[in-house]
Amino acid sequence: MGVPNVGRRPFCVKKPDAACVPGRSHFPTVAMRRNAQKIRVIMGSTPAIMIIAFLVAEPDATMSLPRYLLLLFLFGATTAGASEIVVKVRNLPETGTLVLQVYDDPNAFGVFRRPAREQRYEIRVGQEYRITDAPSGAIAVLVYLDENNNRALDRNFIGIPREPVGLSNNYQPKGPPSFQRAAFTAQPDSRIDLDIALFAVLGETGQWGVGLGAIGRSSPYVGSDTNVIQPIPAITYFGERLQWVGPNLRFGVWGGDDLRLALTGSYRVGAYEESDSAALKGLGDRESTLMGGLALVYEGARGFTLDLGYEHDLLDQIGGGSVVARLSRGFQFGNLRLTPGIGANWISGGLANHDFGVPAAAATASRPAYHLSDTFTAEVGLGVFYEFTENWRAVFNVALEQLGSDITDSPIVDTDQVIKGFAAITYTF
Asked: How many helices, marked H, and strands, marked E, lie in the chain?
């Protein structure tokens, strides 16, 4: 049973000179609620004091439809609206398609995927390019020319945009883009005018960088406290198909935006020198070598990357190779990008024996012969990229590799973990 309508006049919608009927609904109809929503969308900000003044002036007034709509007009007007972004784009061609994207998620901006808003325009003389429903708060804007009109930002074999782009604050990154450098604050119900210049990320010849780096690996060997640390020149290059970062190189041969196949090369630091420990004497030095192979890269949903590759010893120093499967995802924090990952490694018997085996010819009374077959290891890692300026950056990659029991059973091994990594500071031209 409902609550009796005592001491107050009922809400009703009535024709002129018609009486209100007690018991009618005291709440707006569906149609009235829809009209009210339209009013809230249309109207801007109105001080709440006007609502109070209206109620005080007519405390006992019948809530007729016009009066109800006026109240909703005032109340709905207090809802904050979205901001409007108007973009002036320099160096536009005379024809084509221009795409405007707004990002409010640093991680999405870091890969130029999943924008909060997107608007497409056919380029015309005198055309104004705008987004009218941009979110408020910290946002960044990306514009690009969709040159082939395929409704996507085309990328090269290593994921770098190949179509002309422009960013808010006219930020021109030379690596993973920093949301912080491109971001600005959008206030509700505001208009923001941006002047953005288009540019080719890779230029005409790609991006070159130079610096100083080091590659290293901890020692898992009995009696050895000598970790392998080797300085190397930190050369970087990003081109249409070629990627060269310190000790690693990739050349794209097939694929597109999400799935790519590449030739790979890497510098592998030597595992040990026999002078590192008495337990290693007579085994000879384990020299550094060059590895080469293939890698298949898949970039999935939500920024996850799956990397599957095989590399073999090119200089025949080892006589074997390894398969690496790694899953990673990048996270952006200001100018800092962190990429944690997990992986599994298949190691051929030749490589396993090169690093951890004891040949029969080198066996002693305290160091028996030990032979390994193919084996597996697991690892967790972290990639760090920090942008000091648009040209200076630091790169750091470290991984903790868990060795299997068949490796730790070797008479020359006394720990089940190896730390390996690469660090560099570079300047990009």
From this structure: 7, 22
Strands (E) in 94-233, as ranges, are 97-103, 117-122, 129-134, 137-145, 165-167, 184-186, 191-197, 207-217, 228-233
Rounded to the nearest integer, the mean pLDDT of the chain is 82
Chain centroid to Cα 240, Å, comes to 20
Model confidence at 207, pLDDT cuts 50, 70, 90, reads confident
Residue 391 has pLDDT above 90, yes or no: no
Q: Which of 15, 18, 108, 123 is nearest to 65 (CA)?
A: 15
Contacts of 9 (CB under 8 A, 6+ apart): 20, 60, 62
Statement: residue 38 has pLDDT above 50:
no
| Count of beta carbons in the 10 Å neighbourhood of residue 393 | 25
Provide the H-helix boundaries in 3-120.
30-42, 49-57, 65-76, 106-111
CATH C-level class of 207-428: mainly beta
> At residue 99, what are phi and psi to the nearest 5 degrees?
-115, 130
Question: Do the Cβ atoms of 216 and 269 come closer than 8 Å?
Answer: yes
Task: State the DSSP code for 63.
Answer: -
Residue 137 has φ and ψ, to the nearest 5°, of 95, -160
Rounded distance between C-alpha atoms, residue 329 and residue 13, angstroms:
59
The CATH classification number of 83-197 equals 2.60.40
Contact 300, 275 (CB under 8 A): no
The pLDDT, as a whole number, for residue 240 is 81
Helix (H), strand (E) at residue 379: strand 375-387
Q: Which of 44-48, 138-142, 364-368 has the lowest mean pLDDT?
A: 44-48
Please state the pTM of the whole predicted model.
0.67
CB 368 within 8 A of CB 222: no
Listed residue (346, 363, 211, 360) closest to 281, CA to CA: 363
- Give yes or no for residue 70 having a pLDDT over 70: no
CA 392, CA 265: separation in Å to the nearest integer? 25
Q: Residue 188 above 50 pLDDT?
A: yes
Sheet with 83-90: list strands edge to edge: 129-134, 83-90, 191-197
Determine the distance from the C-alpha atom of residue 271 to the mean position of all C-alpha atoms in its chain, rounded to a whole number.
Answer: 34
